[in-house]
Amino acid sequence: MDEWFVVDHLDIERLLSEWRWLCPSEMTLVARAAFGDLFLRDAGGAVFWLNTAIGKLTRVADSEREFCEMVNKSEKRTEWFAEQEVQACAKRGLIPTRYQCIAFSLPLIFAESGSSNTPYIVDIYECVAFLGDLNRQVSNLPDGSKVRLRVKVPEPSPPQ
Questions:
Q1: Which of 32, 95, 120, 126 has the most CB atoms within 10 Å of its CB?
Q2: What pLDDT digit, counting tens, does each position of 11-28 carry?
Q3: In the sheet where 28-32 sits, what is the strand order?
Q4: By CB neighbour count within 10 A (0-12 exposed, 13-18 middle, 19+ buried), where does 153 fall?
Q5: How far is CA 67 from CA 25, 30, 79, 95, in A?
Q6: pLDDT 10s digits, 142-157
Q7: Separation of alpha carbons 76 and 144, rounded Å
Q8: Nearest to 122 by CA among 94, 150, 89
Q9: How many angstroms from the chain centroid is the CA of residue 121?
């Protein structure tokens, strides 16, 4: 649990670069979850949960102290930090470092991602940025909308 609050090494501006459409105000990083979710404190001291999987910013506590007290409750750790899923991933050898998180082969925002979805370790900055851009693109679509993904493969850099 303590590792969730070890976030001083992470660059909040870089993490939020693709989330400014949802989180425009200045925030401080309080904690992070193994699946890339972020817990942010605003200038007034309130704590927000940035659920990167579904693109939702939710106020969860009026202060960092209240947030820490809530984290001590099992149901909040399950909801916010997905403890059981993290343990299951760890048993499979998926243990992210300080600069990594666990992602899924098909983003969870898509209903079809389901149980056959493969988790893997990825750079936290890349994952959070990708999910911010993806969620921004689908943010105005009604639930249940059909989405077609088009992946552009970058052209190789010319030899130097």
A1: 32
A2: 999 999 999 999 999 999
A3: 28-32, 38-41, 47-51, 56-61
A4: exposed
A5: 20, 10, 13, 25
A6: 887 787 777 777 777 7
A7: 28
A8: 94
A9: 13
